User: What shape does this take?
Amino acid sequence: MPDMSVPAVEMRGIVKRFPGVLANDHVDLTVRAGEIHALLGENGAGKTTLMNILYGIYHPDEGEIFVKGQRAHIRSPRDAIRLGIGMVHQQFRLVPSHTVAENVVLGLPGNFFFPERAARERLQEFARRYGLHVDPDARIWQLSAGEQQRVEIIKALYRGADILILDEPTSMLTPREIEELMATVRRMADDGQTVIFITHKLDEVFAVSDRVTVLRQGKVVATLETARTDKRELARLMVGRDVLFRLEKRPVAIGPTVLEVQNLHVRSDRGLPAVRGVSFSLAAGEILGIAGVAGNGQRELAEALAGLRPVEKGRVLLNGEDVTNRPPRALVRRGVCYVPGERLVGTVPNLSVAENLILKTYDQAPVCRGIFLDSRAIASHADALIEQYAVATPSRETPLKLLSGGNIQRAILARETSGAPGLLIAAHPTSGLDVGATEYIRQVLLSQREKGTAVLLVSEDLEEILQLSDRVAVMYNGEIMGILPADRADLETIGMMMAGIHRTEPEVA
Amino acid sequence: MSIWAYIFSVLQAAIPAGTPLLYGTLGEVTAERSGVVNLGVEGMMIMGAVTAFGVAQATGNAFLAIAAAALVGGLLALIHAFASITLRVNQVVSGLALTMLGQGISGMMGKRFIGMPPRVQLKPVPIPGLSDLPVLGPLLFQHDLLVYIGLLMVPVLWFLFYRTRWGINLRSVGESPATADAMGVNVFQVRYLAVFFGGLMAGIGGAYLSIVYAPAWIEGMTAGIGWIVIALTIFAMWDPVRGLLGAYLFGSVRVLQYRLQGLGISPPLLNMLPFILTILVLMFSAGEAMRKRLGAPAALMQPYTREER
Amino acid sequence: MNSLPRIRLEKRLDTPRWLGVATPVFSVLAALLVIAVIFGLLGVNPLVAYARIFTGAFGSLYGLSETVTKAIPLMLAGAGLAVAFRARVYNIGAEGQLLIGAVCATGVALFVPGVPDGLRLPAMFVAGALGGALWAMVPAVLKARLRIDEVLTSLMTVYIASELVNYLVYGPWKGLYESGFPYSDKFPPAAQIPRIGITRIHYPTLILALLAAVLAYFLVRRTRWGFEIRVTGENPEAARYAGMNYLRTAMLVMALSGALAGIAGVGEVAGIHYRLRYPQGISPGYGFTAIIVAWLARLNPLGVILTALLIGGLLVGGDAIQLAMGLPSATVYLFNGMILLFVLGGDLFTRYQIRIELPGRAVATPVRLEREEVG
Assistant: This one.
């Protein structure tokens, strides 16, 4: 058993800046030896950044780190591994076509031959001690997400880790696999291992941790004994925050129903169910906010509605017409516009601003006559939009990639909203933007609402959702936990729903 | 001659005929396993051929000739490695440029060798004991040394790929360079070595053509063999053992190509055979790959850079 | 960690305009310099050779006319390839498509009776274009149906086309009056493309070539298809998002580049040789050289007009030193390969800035793992 009196990890005054963002703001964290320490916070709270610093992937701008009582300078993951720190990332670092054993020994120093017998023996030992059962000869792509995660944990243990960081370890697991993981984590802690467990789910904090540190906007809000707190307190600590600025939201008469989604099922890139039986409707002149922590099916929902992802089951009605699984082009013609979360998906960085502005209308008048593109029409179209949306660009012929993020987003919004859309799907429209650009983009969404557009706003930013939406739906694990009118939606209720606890019956609009 | 005797004689001749393909394929399999496609095989082979012939004429030493050919192939491959790994240029076009370069330089170097009678020849070396075996003896064990070395390379490479750390590193770099890098594997070093090895092997394959299989220098004597190697690499599913099968299969086609001329079939039509067969092989491989979920190394043709991942 | 200085590439945000012109020029010059060294090593005086090349290609009216003559097929095939490469479709089989164009033209010239004289040549051009396009459909369909990479399959069709020509000129199409040579019979006068004076410039094909380059430019720049080609080549994900059909675009550019290469083949047999000959006698690798022509022009079809003339001159000059200095015909490939390599490498300067890090000051660049936490 390790010396329990010396903390396994002590981080003091850690500051980490990224361009435009203060990711960690004088963070202090003490993790006791042999404990399971939960790191709780919303997306963007700075949890992963902090742990990437501990694992040597990032370097702190300020602050110092002590590992097992010794001052540590961790310059790379190698240094971290040498100090007995292991990390299991959200995205696994495994070679899919290789076997478990090959993945485990990859990159280890040692003699020329593949140490097959040694690998097998130690894998068996981990299986016995912690319940980490996995077939050494299986290929990674044949394994479930839970088994792959076990391989990642084994990789860390194989390198002698006694401080294990798990970054959102349950995000891709089935409920059964989550149970198994929790049991494994418990057994490891009983065996003297220290575990840092990053999560945004309150249930998990209570299921597994001894202590919990809550991060919000890069700062530590509190460190508490898990046994002496409750979900209500943690939810408030996690999402409570100040509002940066106020936008004027005028009352708008709700029009006819534009979009109706019935029992929608969509699969993720990995082929797992991502959207599971979602139903809602959206009317003209209304903003429906979809809140939720990233990875709960919002992306798949938005892509399916934009025609970019096949619908497995269920129906999508647009102005009463069934448009399920119609190609994107057909939806565009019917007035569906989509502002994707990843800005590079919706743009061609090397083409000019003007050309990016016609990406969706290049085959329609007035831009296109017969087979020819009318360069004068393209130019005047571009000039008009650049002026109307105040896109800061040297000229319309400038390659789009040279613009700032905020101006690229303005250009995308200009393209998507200028043609009087019937339905606007905006996914994380302000992520990564500065305050000015954020405010402008929110105003555009509100003015679209006033023009009678039905707006579906997907965002992880609760403040944004509450400011703009008429109604708020919360997604968790592919389902809608409930839909609330904006005036009845408070941070605490939504925070609980985001964490998958509080479930109200979806109401019909 | 009975039908069996005929098949036997075709197979016996197919082994030397397939040997240049075997060397080229084993080399390209290694390079592609690391994630780099080298379409310059044709160019490296022809440079190997002309170098081997030239050195053999000058020194009279076959082994010096083969070593020189391997070295020249490897050096050419390093050009492609630099372009595609360090400079991250388009691998297709860079390989193509390498082939043109090889054809050009070999043509100039070889001008004076045209029509020269070869000074050295690699004689068959029957392996004592084994060569007396019925059927298998004359089929496999009465060839020259390079045939044996090529055959031996197959299990050696297989072992290297699947049973050593070096092989795990190589395959990881080709499948998921970011993972390999994160686990402390030097992605650039592994790729450079693999591409260089591919060049060595292509050079030896070329040497086999000009000093063993058809001892002479003829401009453009590789005649598309390098391209067949690229196709065989896909057919082999990046596996040395299947590479051996493919090489000897195409060797048989080459032998048949000459034999069938005797039956009065137009030589140009027969010359099409390997290329038509190559397309068929690619179609077959595509179908098989779909069925078995086998695929090219996942990072094939993708330059690796830390900053962008 | 590493004790050697490390070369690092950083993406350029802005490419200065002058770099776009300067890099191809400097790339060619650098390639010529390296070739000079190789010449020296092989015992050829590079200064004499380069002087010969220059005077051979540009030093006389005859040389100039030959340069233009050789630029014709390069321009045609190069314009098509520039468009295909723009869409990131790697048609390496232009040489084969050119030969098939030649075969189709020969078929119409010699074996289709009853075509009025005035229509004979137009019919040959149409047949050649169709033949080239259809031949290009082999790799295109394999790509669309079975996802087989077009690089290898298009290349294989070159060898098959070449053997097909061999088969024809040694076999069924061997001329009755051409004893001993692998040639077809001579085309009747109505199937011969007129030339300018005593030169070999078959000007109708030249006009077609210039037209093709200009039209290809307009196709890429000014039409909806061209827009689809550019978007698809730059960012396939955005093309999908905009509802574009990648496979349709791939088929289109394959057919287009095949058709233009086919027309080039018609020009060679009907404008130069007046007969089908063995493959190397029709084209000394124009289809491959066109790849360089397209790349050197930075995939701009209008630029292809210039680069085709430049490389055409190099081919003529190459012929001149072959005769004068006893060099093999493969010398041309040395120029091709080296220039292509340097143009490729030179491209880098327009896309990246090069930083050299000395060991002491190198900071291990972190592997960026997560994006979401940064925001």
